[in-house]
Amino acid sequence: MDLKGKSCIVTGSASGIGKAIARRYIADGANVAIADLRLDAARATAEELTAEGPGTAIGVEMDVTDEDAVNAGVAEVVDTWGGVDVLVSNAGIQIVHPVQDFPFAEWKKMLAIHLDGAFLTSKACLPHMYKAGSGSVIFMGSVHSKEASPLKSAYVTAKHGLLGLARVIAKEGAAHGVRSNVICPGFVKTPLVERQIPEQARDLGISEKEVVEKMMLGGTVDKEFTTVEDVAEIAHLFAAFPTNALTGQSMIVSHGWFME
Ligand code: NAD
Predict the structure, then answer these.
(1) How far is the CA of 260 from the centre of ligand 1 (A)?
(2) What domains, with CATH codes, occur in the chain?
(3) pLDDT grade, residue 113 (50/70/90)?
(4) Distance in angstroms (rounded) separating the CA atoms of residues 116 and 122
(5) What average pLDDT does this structure show over 204-232?
């Protein structure tokens, strides 16, 4: 169960969870495309991770909401490494408002990044996986794929939607040896979450300490944040698992915040 020589695309991997997944794959000998909005940031991460080795990385400019950009980025990866074995659709943002104040443009932006991004990257990668007769598609869900929180209507809706798309790809991909699964992390201290703390404090009229201790970690078994390394370990399992036995699933990694 290793990823040596595998061709992997991780979207949104110039930062946060995606970067940790890329690092874990490269440590296992994989080649990873750091696909992110800004080419300079993607290239800087690729350079940093290639230096760690033993796998290698390239930076690829990709806005996951833009079909032409997704197709061009995937084509670049196929030209470089001959195919795509693993797709991690991870790019994501957070915007919080109560439903009655949620600007429609921001709702559409959220669904575009999380859902269009997952659809477009899958659509572009699956033909290459089907041709090879194997592959792994991984979506970055959230505990919010299973649970709701106030202010997060667009995020919760999009993250629930990813479960459906992953299950369809699991059924369509099975005949081609392609698996599809969702990772559902609890709160992980990345720039995405750091930005939410003051925003939620403002919107809910509570202190930032209360946001962390009550809203974010109040439901965990030990008041601990999940780490990027914890999430990367699950991403490695889903990528490297050798058979169709593990497909159409979602794995929660959240210090027990959500149990099922
Ligand atoms: P982050 O802000 O550190 O990283 C997100 C990355 O996505 C950035 O590099 C950004 O440039 C990139 N990105 C944003 N829009 C993009 C687009 N249109 N096209 C390509 N790249 C784009 O955030 P993170 O916390 O590492 O989040 C990564 C994923 O994990 C997201 O899908 C998020 O919803 C999910 N997640 C995060 C947490 C958490 O607590 N941090 C918990 C559960 C799930």
Answers:
(1) 25
(2) 7-188+226-253 (3.40.50.720), 189-225 (no CATH)
(3) very high
(4) 10
(5) 95
